[in-house]
Design brief:
This protein is mostly helical. It has one domain. It contains 5 helices and no strands. Helix 1 packs antiparallel against helix 3 and helix 3 packs antiparallel against helix 4. The relative contact order is 0.13.
Length: 90
């Protein structure tokens, strides 16, 4: 279930980037989306580990959850930059 949530997030980010091709600030803000890719890989690894070492799989899932506790401010910076440009009349 978590793997599918990570995949859905990754697809959402890709769709947002595709929809805003004329807005380079969003692409710049999102970047390579390392956090999303690491989550997807972590969940896939956790599923594989569950068959061999269930405790290690639990630890992997916990690590991915801890990664997401750190706020991801990329989109917030994008919105703030866009609002600043709008105020300046650009």
């Amino acid at each position: 279930m978590l793997l599918l949530a990570a995949l859905a997030y990754l697809l959402l980010v890709r769709a947002l980037m595709a929809a805003n091709r004329t807005e380079p600030a969003l692409r710049e803000a999102i970047g390579r989306d390392r956090k999303g890719l690491v989550s997807l890989a972590g969940y896939a690894l956790g599923i594989g580990l569950a068959f061999v070492r269930p405790v290690a799989a639990d630890a992997m899932f916990a690590v991915v959850a801890l990664v997401w506790l750190a706020p991801d401010r990329r989109v917030e910076r994008y919105v703030a930059t866009r609002e600043d440009r709008r105020r300046r009349g650009r």
